[in-house]
Amino acid sequence: MARNEPCLFPSTVLVLVLAGLLSAAPGCAKDGSGSNGGGSGEGAGLQPGNPSDDDDDETPPPALTCAGEELAEIELVDIWGRPLSGVGADDDASATLTPLEADCAPQAWLQCGRSVVGDNSADAGTTENIDGWRVGVGAYAGREAAYAFRAGADGPITWELVDPRPLVANQDLFVLAGNGDSCRAEDVIERGFNDVTFQARAGETYFLVLDSFAGAGGPFEVFLDCGDDLNESQSPTGPEPFEELAAHEDGPFSITYSAPDYLPTTVTGRIVGGRFVDVQVTGTARAAASWDDRALPGYDAACRVNTLYVGLDHAWYAASAPRPPRTGNEIDLFLSGEEMYERVHADLLNATDNLHLATWWWESDFELLRPGEHWLMTEEQRYPQTVLGMLEAASFLDVKVLVSRFCDDDCFGWADWVTVDSELIDKAETAGDGFEVALQGNPTEVPLFDDYEPEPVLWWLVDRVAAQPQFATRTFLDLPEPADDARFDVAIASYHQKMLTIDGEIAFVSGMNVKATDWDTTEHGVFEPRRMNFDSDVEDRIEVLELEDEPDLSPRKDYGLRIEGPLVADVDTVLSQRWDQAISAGEPYTEFNTPWTPPSPANKSFSGVEAQFQVTLPIPSPERSIVESLRKALAQAQEYVYVEDQYWRAPLLNEILLETLLARPQLKLVVVTSPISTLDPSAWWTKLTDELFREQVPDQYVTFTTKSFDWAPDDGWFTAGVEPFLVQHSVHSKLVIVDDRYLSVGSANKNNRGLLFEGEANVAVLDADWVREQRVALMTNLLGPDFAPQMTDDFSQTWELLNEAAEANEDAVRWWNANADDLTAEEARSAENTTWPSGFLYPLELPDSSLITPGPDAF
Questions:
Q1: First and final C-alpha spacing in the chain
Q2: What is the pLDDT at residue 8?
Q3: What is the pLDDT of residues 463-510, one digit of tens each?
Q4: Rounded to the nearest 10 degrees, what angle do helices 651-663 and 625-636 cross at?
Q5: Distant-in-sequence, close-in-space partners of 66: CB < 8 Å, separation ≥ 6
Q6: 253 and 336 together in one domain
């Protein structure tokens, strides 16, 4: 095979939608002739050697040498360092990019009836990532040599060692299913010693891995036997060689990269003697560099290869989060505490190993399950459904509970009992019972009247690329990387995260605490007897049921997620990080606490939705991935932005949101939030936020709140009518939806606190079908039976429908207030058929003044 001519031309700008290794400019030949040469797949550069590809009509070229020469290549990766996989070109804008996660790095495609030689103790390209296999006992701590094979027909395939010498090199053979063309140890299907046979299916990709115990590696030759017919005809090779090298000539270069859902960048620099110098990337992309001595097919000696990694930033997800977006998650959105805590209850009944939980507030008698006729049950009957009652019954579980501690150490411990109760403290003070507790304070000091200056969030692309298994053998260099721009004194911060994991397999992330106020149904009934304090007696609950009194707690609007899939490990990792930090800091009740090792975020499948777990964390490990992702999503908005939140005062978001609204007159902003009073310490910032959008984009902006309506007979001494009840919801939601594409939900309020320094946890989902389904569900609940059936996917129509529903509900309440005194109970029941609020939506009016004018970050 002849060496290709370099495929990078000075002063040329290429716009490429690429995946995996860098493809060449259109028209650049693999063999330098102007047309694609031999070998499989598309792209430019040095081709993987395939000694069996010799053409009988041609004389094989002499082997090339790299002596004294260095080669330059560019790898396109995402901002988390993962190779961008998939197939695409600049004329195929619909191509998608699926991040490739791999444990082993295939070195070449194997062919039927051919053998390959190697040495898994010394060869470049081998990896050392897999220490054990689920199909065989033993610590396989040696290096792995991996190959890929694509079956040409159904049937048995045998992969075998040629002349095995176990006393020299004791190596075993493994077959992995090519799930998504990703080489992952968990997909192993067969193991053999000197040989292994598996049933192949035509067109399927398999990975063949040779592994050994530590110190038992060495030279080997392996042969692929597909049967006489296929051995003669050879099976088709894969569409892209794994060891393709796109080599570039010395000189200046400028390349522009773009890809769907990624922000474009232009990379400039020079190549001198095969090395990259003066590299610059535009926008929010980043770059990293490495070198390695690599055995390249067609060469008689290892070549020094200098690699430049270009990391494209995602247009929606947070690059600063060390946890990348992950595919293959099954996620359920719950519209109420009843829905979510019923699932928590069911999952706890099936738990076998552990529960890890973080909450802002803990009440041991919080009832997870409230079944029918719950109001007739005594405390003793209801206790088994409380969170502590369930955990006591499951005493075999390893339980670790994190609760926010107010004031950190500045309050001398007086506030340590505010967020917990004596029952939990008893568990915390009992050593060795498998129930551990930590109170954790947020050390952030926030100026009361000035802006808070956060610590910068620092990270480097080189660290992320170096952590990828396929690049593990390379030596990485230092390139200058920009520090994050930290645009964005009283100890008033807290840890506000609400999340839990069960057995490392299930996670819940929400805005709901383990607290009585955080439970309600999707009906948000005015007279809901299950919305009573735990210690209320049966008589009190019956009075609510019979419309004689209102319940102890108001209707609550909130959301939560249940997750299965690789994202669960990310939730557990943050829980573990906080837990270890609390132990290290000597927080209350941690003296006997023990750490745990979070599970690996390996994908179980490629079905399900893509999502990223995002957090706000204070020092010593600051992170602000929630605000980064929200700002990106708001900049992408085309049709609508829906915000449902306890607060509407996040100046950090105002600039980008207003800029997007002004640039796109068709874009609509809908905000559902709680009313505020002039006594609210930060009503000033809500007022300024509301005025900004009302003045700048009055036709694109609307605010609502939510309420519940009902009536009851008026048994007063001097009246014979009925009494109407309009009850304001406690809007505790923290949810954003953009364009039926992006949904963010969790604990982070729309104030600067939750985006800068308050401990928060959100999940961002980027999946059009899933997000649309959730938007329809929550707006169906919001609009009620009169208006929900009219909803379409045209948000301009939904915008009108929301306004119409809110005004109609307001008119209905006015009618009841005007006529209730003159109605009998029978007339009131009849009036429900024609005059009744639909759903929960009402116009929101905000006050014109504020008691104080604090800084934007304190409240």
A1: 68
A2: 28
A3: 999 988 888 889 998 765 554 443 333 344 577 889 999 999 999 999
A4: 10
A5: 296, 299, 301, 302, 303, 304
A6: no
pLDDT, position 455: 74
SS3 542: helix
pLDDT digits (tens, 9 = 90+) for 668-711: 999 999 998 877 777 888 888 999 999 999 999 999 999 999 99
Question: What single DSSP character describes residue 689?
Answer: H
Position 638 confidence tier, pLDDT thresholds 50, 70, 90? very high
Tens of pLDDT, residue by residue over 429-441, are 999 899 999 998 7
As a dihedral over the C-alpha atoms of residue 782, residue 784, residue 786, residue 791, rounded to 10 degrees, the angle is 50
Residue 666 has pLDDT above 50, yes or no: yes
SS3 301: coil
Please tell me the predicted confidence (pLDDT) of residue 129.
85
Residues 669 and 536 placed together within one structural domain of the fold: yes
Among 14-18, 231-235, 294-298, 620-624, name the one with the lowest average pLDDT.
Answer: 14-18
Distance (Å, whole) CA 643 – CA 416? 34
CATH (domain of 130): 2.60.120.380
Distances (CA, A) of 47 to 50, 273, 796: 9, 21, 53
SS (H, E, C) 774-787: HHHHHHHHHHCCCC
Specify if 675 maps to a domain: yes
For 283, the domain range is: 15-101+242-312
Domain shared by 390 and 507, yes or no: yes
| 770-774, Cβ contacts within 8 angstroms, sequence gap of 24 or more | 770/331, 770/609, 770/743, 771/737, 771/740, 771/741, 771/742, 771/743, 772/740, 774/333, 774/737, 774/743
Average confidence (pLDDT) over 182-199? 90
Q: 718 and 806: one domain?
A: yes
In angstroms, rounded to a whole number, what is the distance separating the alpha carbons of residues 376 and 131? 57
Residue 474 belongs to some domain of the structure: no
Separation CA 854–CA 202 (nearest Å):
68
Q: Where does the pLDDT of residue 4 fall: very low under 50, low under 70, confident under 90, or very high at 90 and above?
A: very low
Q: H or E element: which one contains 255?
A: strand 251-259
Domain boundary among 175, 198, 233: 233
Residue where a domain stops, chosen among 285, 312, 339: 312
Question: Measuring CA to CA, which residue among 554, 526, 524, 545 is closest to residue 816?
Answer: 526
Q: Is residue 95 located within the same domain as residue 162? A: no
As given in the structure block, the two tokens for residue 26 are: 């259109």
Residue 449: pLDDT band with limits 50, 70, 90: low
Helix, strand, coil percentages (3-state) for the chain, rounded to 5, are 20, 30, 50
| Residues 6 or more apart in contact with residue 386 via CB below 8 angstroms | 364, 365, 366, 367, 368, 534
Q: How confident is the model at residue 605 (pLDDT cuts 50, 70, 90)?
A: low
Shared-domain flag, residues 427 and 514: yes
Asked whether residue 858 is domain-assigned, the answer is no
Assess whether 67 and 124 both reside in one domain: no
For residues 147 and 94, membership in a common domain is answered with no
Q: Which residues contact 414 (CB under 8 A, 6 or more apart)?
A: 407
Torsion angles phi and psi, residue 820, rounded to 5: -60, -40
DSSP 46: B
**Number of Cβ atoms within 10 Å of the Cβ of 295:** 17
Rg, the chain, Cα only: 31
Q: Out of 251-265, 445-459, 791-805, which region has the weakest mean confidence (pLDDT)?
A: 445-459
DSSP type of residue 64: B
- Do 158 and 228 touch, CB atoms closer than 8 A? no
For residue 706, the domain's CATH number is 3.30.870.10
Contacts of 655 (CB under 8 A, 6+ apart): none
DSSP, collapsed to helix, strand or coil, labels residue 185 as helix
- Is 465 part of a structural domain of the chain? no
Question: pLDDT tier at 859 (50, 70, 90 boundaries)?
Answer: low
Q: Model's pTM, two decimal places?
A: 0.76
Number of domains comprising the chain: 3
